[in-house]
Amino acid sequence: MIVLQKNLIQLPMLQQEIIMEEIEYVFDEFENYTYASEYFQQELELEERSRLGPAQWISLVLYSLAFVLGVPGNAIVIWFTGFKWEKTVATLWFLNLAVADFVFLLFLPLYISYVAMNFHWPFGTWLCKANSFIALLNMFASVFFLTVISLDRYVHLIHPVFSQRHRTLRNALCAIGIIWLVAGLIAGPALYFRETLEHNNHTICYNNFHQSDDSIVLMRHHALTWIKFVLGYLLPLLTMIICYSLLALQVKRRAALTSSRHFWTILAVVLAFIICWTPFHLFSIWELSIHHSSAYHHVLQAGLPISTGLAFFNSCLNPLLYVLISKKFQARFQASVAELLKHTLREVSWSGTVSEQYKHSETKNLCLLEIMQ
């Protein structure tokens, strides 16, 4: 805010008042707060208005890679777990995990366009609300399903008696419903707070926590940030670390050869979650301090887009880390592909045989006609 006030000094008084009102109106944005301030600063410095910084370009690369790799990867998982394989508790987890990531990635081009157009949102208010809601819904549903998968693996392998009694399809479906409900409740505020603001033919999609009362803005901003951090990062991370640590210890006691592979698999899973999600939540918490000081404004401008891109990138890693590294999945995948190819070749062969029989019968009929003539 201090930087923006300095840039406004040279403007006429009436124009200063108009711009300052709009800056205060959007300055406390939650997820894209620094994007909004960057936009207004660029409006005042016309020579930089159409340029994207290095952080934005890096984030665009991460978004694009997540979309290109994640859509087909999750689609393959959905196809096999949802339509080709027998329904089990494990396949239900992976199916819903893939659905959450897949739906989120399908809407990612809207956000890519938003960043590529220098944070100009031409898609309207309702799509601004819907896009933010769907993004949050599926991002946190994905995190919750990763957490449930770690719990399920631990219970299934370490407590087989309890697993046999309670690990049923019915209970799994109930857990899936609860996960989607909680994710929807966390994402729900986006439908209420998310709005668009137009200024000089430039529209932004932002969180309007309150137009005039700074105390309400701060309260809502802090509350939503800490809820997302605790429920969407801290508790899932602690759950995965505890479950996989206990699981690794148990496997190590049973077989040293198996424990080595299992250890590296577990390490890859936990590290991927930490690398992708830690920067996103740390910068979101750090962003709260901007209300009191603008000293690290430029750091946040660079850090938030990149950290958001890393969080998005986790959606394309999930099929690889949680499914494709499994030998059992690879065997079932190869068997399913072999069966599909065999079925396709059989159909081609059958159609070719029918075609040859048809040609043979036609030739035979022509010969009979010539003989009769």
TrEMBL record:
Keyword set, alphabetical order: Cell membrane, Disulfide bond, G-protein coupled receptor, Glycoprotein, Membrane, Receptor, Transducer, Transmembrane, Transmembrane helix
Protein name stated in the entry: Chemerin-like receptor 2
Family annotation (Pfam families): 7tm_1 (PF00001)
Parts forming coiled coils: none
Name of the encoding gene: CMKLR2
Organism in which the protein naturally occurs: Monodelphis domestica (Gray short-tailed opossum)
Family matches, as InterPro entries: CML2, Formyl_rcpt-rel, GPCR_Rhodpsn, GPCR_Rhodpsn_7TM
Record's bilayer topology term: Multi-pass membrane protein
Highest taxon in the source lineage: Eukaryota
CDD domains membership: 7tmA_GPR1 (cd15119)
